[in-house]
């Protein structure tokens, strides 16, 4: 009987203990590592090199957060996720932030209960075909076999687009990017459809990139951005304002190289606020005032990150286009830090 | 008497619940039950709290919203404007189709391999041993992927094009084997009877007519057999029946097919792909063949054990009575062996049905890929989707074992 009472007591205690959990910031700082959900390998956004070191736009963003929060850009554990597993990984707390070329949509924001930190790449869905197919427009794709990564906005846009222009196609759903490439190269599908940047990145990894063309039609808007769980506003603020700090740094001409010097010498009050000389923005975030300076010093400003990972000098060679600063005809607009 | 029973009642202490053999078993059961209830309660409580913490509700409303994705193949009407519930139904039908096909081929393969493994021919018996041991000792998923890789290495449709194509169609240009799958000719009717609207789509009246005709022919065939038996019991001589039955089937069927204007619709290269005919997609072939050869190896062992369990005296007695080897197998050995074979076969059919969810690896759009994959992913309803999917798989499995148990009941030894 005593045993039974003991069991009952222990169980009741366990039940009432509940799920008390501190904020994500405290969790990350206690752990000393940031868990960042990324793609399994998409050159230019997140992919490990031969030494296992991760590189890419999204990777640099996570390093910037780690630099701001943990004062160490290398204190990041990159967790590869697929299109299907990414949201579960974030919702379950397996990752603290998801930076995985994820399109900001209404249902993901509202229904899936996530908060997007902003847009770090404005993209649109396109098609890539082998040149030998002799096709120059998506409207000629009647009867084509299309490989798509499943669990993405891609498959929804594709179904909608082809239904609208009344074209029959054969969808081949594939779990991850590597399988899509392998199937496409083997000729098991005529077309692959994905975000334009993804296609450019995929093509750059082919043996003969010049044998493939990206069709001119852009069939959707794909604002890609990092996201966090809804309900932890402090953590969402850190994610949002770190991204803004990187964009503002480009607007203000602060680079990885001159950040330290600017922090000490710059007269521009905007630069002063960004780098923690004036005001105390970092403390309001629950960090210290040099958070943004560390982020920029670690990975550079938005422009530097873009040029290093996707720009003209890389094999992917994407133009800035929509992702130029607003002052240069693009959409990148740093919200005021004050 | 009263004193004795009073003394017994007084003698009861709480510690007797554990120390007294009369009560111990029940005490343990009660405790186990309590633990089970508490564990279930904790799981449910944890789920409810976590859902509340994430601000999510529990609702199956998502099933009636637009799915937005395409599914190939779909055996009932479906487009990206259909609902998630319909997408799940399309997936469920795909699951059932591949499961049924794999059950049939695995059984045929298994019975042949099982019987041949007992063959007196050394090479045949050893070959079957190699088949059984290599296929059942390697995971099903690997076999599925191997078949998928093989079918993907076939020529692309573009190889069939041009003046001097690198690849050509088989069997008088009727079958095309490509890396997108196999295209087969499909029956078509020039004077079609049309479609009937049915519960889940439409019903092809032509096939209904053919089925009705086959039932009719079968009944006629039974009459012929019964007549032969009557003649045999009276005169002792059995009139030959095979040509009469054959005539009934052939004449009726050909007559109807001719009336319907039966012909084949052949696949032809048009645009980027073959059109027309029936396309067996790579994913389907991979899943079907992979599951068949894998499970066939298990069934072969079940069949072999069933046959070996029948005493040798049975076949010797049958031979002594003058039965041919084929009749010995059909009338004496198999009916007895079936009693042993059927129960483990039920498990194999259940395994096949559940293993169809491995189709995910090759992109087969079954229940797991539609409801459990894309729908869950696009709507974020993991809990609801998974529970629903589990419920559906349990229902299918229980239905299969229910049907097989009825069959088992008819085949098993009748004890009176």
Summary, kept brief:
The complex is a heterodimer of chains A (338) and B (416). Chain A has 338 residues and is of the alpha/beta class. Chain A has helices at 2-17, 24-31, 57-70, 86-91, 106-110, 153-164, 177-185, 196-204, 233-252, 259-265, 269-275, 281-284, 291-299, 302-309; strands spanning 34-39, 47-48, 54-55, 76-81, 97-103, 114-116, 121-123, 125-130, 145-149, 170-174, 191-195, 212-214, 222-229.
Summarize the helices and strands and which ones pair or pack.
The complex is a heterodimer of chains A (about 350) and B (about 425).
Chain A: H1 2-17, H2 24-31, E1 34-39, E2 47-48, E3 54-55, H3 57-70, E4 76-81, H4 86-91, E5 97-103, H5 106-110, E6 114-116, E7 121-123, E8 125-130, E9 145-149, H6 153-164, E10 170-174, H7 177-185, E11 191-195, H8 196-204, E12 212-214, E13 222-229, H9 233-252, H10 259-265, H11 269-275, H12 281-284, H13 291-299, H14 302-309
Parallel strand pairs in A: 1-4, 1-5, 9-10, 9-11
Antiparallel strand pairs in A: 2-3, 5-13, 6-13, 7-13, 8-11, 8-12
Helix pairs in contact in A: 3-9, 3-13, 9-13
Chain B: H1 2-11, H2 16-19, H3 21-54, H4 84-117, H5 122-136, H6 140-152, E1 176-178, E2 181-184, E3 186-189, E4 195-197, E5 202-204, H7 205-235, H8 242-260, E6 262-265, E7 268-270, E8 273-275, E9 278-281, H9 282-308, H10 312-320, H11 325-355, H12 367-379, H13 382-411
Antiparallel strand pairs in B: 1-2, 2-9, 3-6, 4-5, 7-8
């Amino acid at each position: 009987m005593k045993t039974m009472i003991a069991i009952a007591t222990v169980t009741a205690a366990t039940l009432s203990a509940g799920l008390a959990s501190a904020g994500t910031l405290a969790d990350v700082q206690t752990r000393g590592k940031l868990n960042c959900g990324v793609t399994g390998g998409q050159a230019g956004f997140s992919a490990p090199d031969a030494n296992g070191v991760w590189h890419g736009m999204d990777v640099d963003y996570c390093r910037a957060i780690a630099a701001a929060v943990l004062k160490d850009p290398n204190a990041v554990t990159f967790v590869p996720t697929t299109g299907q597993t990414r949201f579960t990984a974030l919702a379950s707390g397996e990752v603290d932030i998801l930076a995985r070329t994820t399109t900001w949509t209404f249902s993901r924001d509202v229904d899936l209960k996530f908060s997007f930190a902003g847009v770090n790449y404005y993209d649109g869905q396109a098609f890539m075909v082998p040149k030998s197919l002799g096709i120059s427009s998506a409207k000629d794709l009647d009867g084509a076999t299309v490989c798509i990564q499943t669990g993405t906005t891609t498959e929804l846009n594709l179904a909608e687009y082809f239904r609208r222009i009344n074209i029959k196609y054969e969808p081949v759903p594939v779990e991850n990017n590597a399988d899509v490439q392998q199937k496409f190269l083997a000729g098991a599908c005529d077309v692959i459809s994905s975000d334009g940047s993804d296609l450019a990145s995929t093509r750059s990894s082919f043996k003969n990139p010049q044998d493939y063309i990206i069709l001119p039609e852009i069939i959707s808007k794909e604002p890609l951005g990092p996201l966090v769980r809804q309900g932890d506003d402090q953590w969402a603020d850190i994610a949002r304002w770190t991204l803004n700090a990187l964009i503002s740094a480009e607007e203000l001409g602060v680079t990885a190289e001159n950040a330290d010097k600017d922090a000490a010498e710059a007269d521009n009050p905007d630069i002063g606020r960004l780098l923690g000389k004036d005001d105390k923005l970092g403390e309001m975030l629950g960090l210290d005032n040099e958070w943004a300076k560390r982020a920029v010093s670690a990975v550079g400003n938005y422009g530097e990150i873009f040029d290093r990972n996707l720009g003209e000098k890389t094999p992917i060679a994407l133009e800035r286009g929509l992702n130029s600063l607003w002052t240069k005809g693009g959409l990148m607009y740093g919200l005021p830090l004050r | 008497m009263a004193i004795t029973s009073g003394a017994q009642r007084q003698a009861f202490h709480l510690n007797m619940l554990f120390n007294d053999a009369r009560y111990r078993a029940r005490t343990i059961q009660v405790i186990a039950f309590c633990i089970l209830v508490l564990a279930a309660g904790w799981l449910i409580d944890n789920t409810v709290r976590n859902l509340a913490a994430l601000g999510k509700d529990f609702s199956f409303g998502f099933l009636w919203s637009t799915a937005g994705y395409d599914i190939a193949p779909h055996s009932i009407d479906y487009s990206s404007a259909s609902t998630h519930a319909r997408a799940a139904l399309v997936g469920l039908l795909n699951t059932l189709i591949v499961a049924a096909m794999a059950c049939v081929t695995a059984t045929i393969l298994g019975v042949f391999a099982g019987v041949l493994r007992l063959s007196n021919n050394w090479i045949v018996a050893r070959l079957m041993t190699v088949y059984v041991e290599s296929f059942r000792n390697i995971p099903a998923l690997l076999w599925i992927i191997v078949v998928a890789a093989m079918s993907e290495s076939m020529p692309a449709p573009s190889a069939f094009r041009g003046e001097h194509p690198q690849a050509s169609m088989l069997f008088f240009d009727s079958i095309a084997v490509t890396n997108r799958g196999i295209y087969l000719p499909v029956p078509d009717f020039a004077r079609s009877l049309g479609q009937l609207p049915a519960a889940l789509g439409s019903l092809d009246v032509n096939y209904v007519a053919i089925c009705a005709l086959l039932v009719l022919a079968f009944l006629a065939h039974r009459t012929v057999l019964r007549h032969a038996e009557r003649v045999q019991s009276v005169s002792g001589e059995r009139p030959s029946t095979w040509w009469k039955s054959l005539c009934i089937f052939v004449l009726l069927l050909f007559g109807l097919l001719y009336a319907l204007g039966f012909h084949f619709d052949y696949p032809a290269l048009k645009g980027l792909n073959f059109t027309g005919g029936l396309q067996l997609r790579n994913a389907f072939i991979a899943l079907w063949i992979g599951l068949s050869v894998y499970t066939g190896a298990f069934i072969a062992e079940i069949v072999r054990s069933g046959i070996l369990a029948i005493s040798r005296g049975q076949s010797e007695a049958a031979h002594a009575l003058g039965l041919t080897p084929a009749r010995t197998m059909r009338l004496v050995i198999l009916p007895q062996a079936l009693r042993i074979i059927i129960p483990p076969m039920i498990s194999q059919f259940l395994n096949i049905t559940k293993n169809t969810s491995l189709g995910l690896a090759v992109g087969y759009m079954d229940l797991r890929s539609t409801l459990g994959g894309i729908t869950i992913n696009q709507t974020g309803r993991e809990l609801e989707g998974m529970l629903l999917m589990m419920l559906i798989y349990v229902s299918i499995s229980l239905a299969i074992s229910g049907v097989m148990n009825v069959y088992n009941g008819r085949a098993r030894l009748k004890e009176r």
